[in-house]
Each structure stands twice: as structure tokens, then as C-alpha cells.
């Protein structure tokens, strides 16, 4: 779990929660220990706090390298999912219990990989957004509701390291130790604000979350693509990205450690044809004159990628941009459809006012893309029933539909199209 916020100097200092109340438990790395943990969790009571530590930036993919579970009456359990890749015994015990996670969408995909799937869930990060907290990182939320500070210094370490150092394990155990207490106080806060049902709908939706949608042509998200000059250079980015991905997957390392995006883009633009050309690129070496290790080590892969593109026919080169079914950027609406632009502006203003009044971020009231899709080239007539149906089909929750539908209906009435 990453706690990436810095406490402002004008905030009160909270006592540091330096060590787990019952000490740091041993890491569970055998099937027998896993069975014992499942038995202990079955003897516990109340919700179950969970967290997972990944090795983003160090390893390929986002698998879990440590799973932390805490339940009152059971204590904290630290599980090595590399040694125990099937946590089915744990799922059998906690599958019907409410799970408490912070920023659940970060951890649910990697928990699913080891056999953990929630049926009931409470997300303290999302709940804190709905409750109007100004800062929603785990450390800030714990400070707000429990009055203690969590250590942050191990949030970005390489959790694939074995054995895991004791200070890291202490940090990991503390991430779940007070999470249920946070949940209880946050739930009371949401109830007092009249937002408990909003939160319940959001949490229920998260139980079916499997991860972000797969992007078409993920290589197009290479940092620095705006520097690419033409379609053939775009093709080189694609070939280089795919070559790098194969190497990274084989080595089980982050692609950026094989070759940074900045160098990949330089190769794509420079189109070197020899090792000498490759090493002569402006960004090939650091200030001390040392090349990035991945450049000479895999130079054959980079040069082969460039050569493949050089042999391609023009018709085989990727398009400069992908066609999208998304509405155009808001900045062009006024020129292309003034009525739709006026509607969008009005609804956004109403959403901002509602958010300010209820202390909820606008993006949590409704995903901005949903609003743009309903208002750009709208159905005719765009009545309340149609608005509600389209928002629901896009994925808006019932509470969001109830709030936003009247806003859109009012904007349609005030900015009608001819024939409406």
C-alpha cells in the first residue's frame, strides 16, 4: 500500500504507530502455515482488513508479493503468495465476510490472481472521498479517524526481495492493523452525512472489479510519443515497445528498467542502423559517459526492430492516431456544437455546486466521460427516462443517476435543439 502524501506543517502532529500491537507475525510460506492462518481467521470476528504489496517498477506486471490480512480475534497474518500461490483456504473462510481495503482497485486484480474474491467490500479511500476528506491517502485517513501516524518510508520498496526485511514486514502489518477501526468511524461519518447508501452502491460495484479495461495498442502510451515525427517512426515505437516487453517479461522486470521510454523514443526517431549509431544517440549515455545497461546488452533487439520497420510497406505502418468513439475534447465543443457545449457547461456548473455543498469531488458524483457521452450527439428527445437509461448503461450507479438526471433534464430544457 502506498501512502504518498506529505503531512502539511500546519497540521497537528500525531503519535507514530511504530510497531504492531502483537509484534510482527512470521511470514506464512508453507501450506501448513496457510491452513493454520485460515483456521485462525475462522475463529475471528467482524470484517477482514486486507492489503497487498506489489513490486511495481521492479518486476513485470502487478502481481502480489505479500498479502496482509487482519481480523479481530485472529490477529494479523502476512502471507507470501509466491510460496503459497493459491490462497483458496483463506477464500473459503473470508469469502462471505466484509473486506476492508484502502484504494481497492489497486489490489483487487492481484488478489484475484491468488484466489481471493470479495462478496462484500468497504473501501476506506473511496469512502473518504465521499465523506469529503481533503486528503485520502491511507496515512491521512488513519490520522483523521484514529489519531495516529503510519510510517511511510517503505511504501515504494521492492517487495519481491526475499527474505523481506523485518522493518518492511512491520510496515506491512501496520497497514491493516487499524483499518477496521477506520472503517467503523468512517461508516458512522457517512451515515451522519446521509451518504451511507451512496457508499454502499459504490462498494457493491467494486466487488465485480477485475481491473482496468485492456487498451488497444498500449505502446501508444509510451512517454514522449508527442516527439514522434511520422508513421514510420510510430511503427518503430511499436516494434521497440514490443521487443522490450518480451525482454521484460522473460526477465520478470519492469520494462522501464530494460530501456527507459525516453531512449526508446530516441531510437524510434533516430533510426540507427548500427551499434555505433545506437550508442551515438544523445541520450545513450549519462553525465558520466556510461550508457544505459539495456542499450548495449540488447542492441541486437533494438536494431532488429528498426530494420523490420525499414522493410515494411507503407500500407503496413500503423495509423498516426486511433479512431475513437469518445466525444471530442470539451475545448472544441463550442465551435462544433454550441448547444451541446452550453448544456455541458451548465451541468458541470450544477455538479460543481452540488459537490461543494455536499463535500464530494465532482468526479465521484459522475464520471466525466459519462456526461460527455450523454450530451454529445444526444438522443432526441433527451427526456428523463432516456437520460437515466443511458447513464445506467454507461455504468453510473443509481444514486448518481438520481442526482445528475434532473441537472441534464434542466439543461436540455434551457438549451433545446430545433425540433426538440
TrEMBL record:
* Designated name of the protein: Ribonuclease D
Sequence intervals crossing the membrane: none
Which intervals hold domain HRDC? 230-316
Gene Ontology MF terms:
3'-5' exonuclease activity; nucleic acid binding; nucleotide binding
Query: InterPro entries of this UniProt entry?
Result: 3'-5'_exonuclease_dom (IPR002562), Exo_C (IPR041605), HRDC-like_sf (IPR010997), HRDC_dom (IPR002121), HRDC_dom_sf (IPR044876), RNase_D-like (IPR051086), RNaseH-like_sf (IPR012337), RNaseH_sf (IPR036397)
Top-level taxonomy: Bacteria, Bacillati, Actinomycetota, Actinomycetes, Micrococcales
Start-end of Polar residues biased regions: 1-10
Offer one example of a GO biological process linked to this entry. nucleobase-containing compound metabolic process
Q: Which Gene3D superfamilies match?
A: HRDC domain, Ribonuclease H-like superfamily/Ribonuclease H
Pfam families, per database record: DNA_pol_A_exo1, DNA_pol_A_exoN, HRDC
Amino acid at each position: 500500500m502506498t501512502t504518498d502524501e506529505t503531512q502539511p506543517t500546519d497540521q497537528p502532529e500525531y503519535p507514530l504507530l511504530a510497531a504492531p500491537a502483537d509484534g510482527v507475525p512470521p511470514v506464512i510460506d508453507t501450506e501448513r502455515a496457510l491452513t493454520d492462518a485460515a483456521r485462525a481467521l475462522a475463529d475471528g470476528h467482524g470484517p477482514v482488513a486486507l492489503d497487498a504489496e506489489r513490486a511495481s517498477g521492479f518486476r513485470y506486471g502487478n502481481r502480489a508479493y505479500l498479502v496482509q490480512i487482519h481480523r479481530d480475534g485472529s490477529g494479523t497474518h502476512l502471507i507470501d503468495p509466491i510460496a503459497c500461490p493459491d490462497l483458496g483456504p483463506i477464500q473459503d473462510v473470508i469469502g462471505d465476510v466484509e473486506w476492508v481495503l484502502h484504494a481497492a482497485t489497486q489490489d483487487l486484480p492481484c488478489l484475484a490472481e491468488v484466489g481471493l474474491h470479495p462478496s462484500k467490500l468497504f473501501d476506506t479511500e473511496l469512502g473518504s472521498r465521499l465523506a469529503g476528506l481533503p486528503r485520502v491517502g491511507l496515512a491521512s485517513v488513519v490520522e483523521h479517524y484514529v489519531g495516529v501516524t503510519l510510517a511511510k518510508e517503505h511504501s515504494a520498496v521492492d517487495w519481491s526481495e526475499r527474505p523481506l526485511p523485518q522493518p518492511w514486514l512491520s510496515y506491512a502489518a501496520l497497514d491493516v492493523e487499524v483499518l477496521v477501526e477506520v472503517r467503523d468511524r468512517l461508516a458512522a461519518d457517512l451515515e451522519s452525512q446521509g451518504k451511507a447508501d451512496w457508499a454502499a452502491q459504490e462498494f457493491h460495484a467494486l466487488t465485480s472489479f477485475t481491473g482496468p479495461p485492456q487498451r488497444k495498442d498500449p505502446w501508444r502510451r509510451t512517454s514522449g510519443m508527442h516527439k514522434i515525427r511520422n508513421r514510420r517512426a510510430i511503427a518503430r515505437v511499436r516494434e521497440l515497445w514490443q521487443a522490450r516487453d518480451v525482454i521484460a517479461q522473460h526477465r520478470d522486470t519492469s520494462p522501464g528498467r530494460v530501456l527507459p521510454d525516453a531512449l526508446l523514443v530516441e531510437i524510434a526517431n533516430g533510426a540507427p542502423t548500427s551499434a555505433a549509431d545506437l550508442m551515438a544517440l544523445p541520450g545513450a549515455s549519462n553525465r558520466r559517459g556510461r550508457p544505459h545497461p539495456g542499450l548495449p546488452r540488447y542492441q541486437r533487439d533494438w536494431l532488429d526492430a528498426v530494420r523490420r520497420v525499414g522493410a515494411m510497406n507503407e500500407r503496413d505502418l500503423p495509423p498516426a492516431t486511433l479512431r475513437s468513439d469518445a466525444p471530442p475534447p470539451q475545448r472544441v465543443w463550442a465551435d462544433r456544437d454550441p448547444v451541446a457545449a452550453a448544456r455541458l457547461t451548465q451541468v458541470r456548473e450544477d455538479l460543481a455546486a452540488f459537490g461543494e455543498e455536499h463535500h464530494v469531488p465532482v468526479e465521484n458524483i459522475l464520471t466525466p466521460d459519462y456526461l460527455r457521452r450523454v450530451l454529445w450527439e444526444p438522443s432526441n428527445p433527451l427526456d428523463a427516462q432516456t437520460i437515466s437509461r443511458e447513464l445506467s448503461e454507461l455504468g453510473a450507479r443509481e444514486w448518481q443517476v438520481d442526482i445528475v438526471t434532473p441537472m441534464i433534464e434542466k439543461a436540455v430544457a434551457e438549451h433545446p435543439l430545433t425540433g426538440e
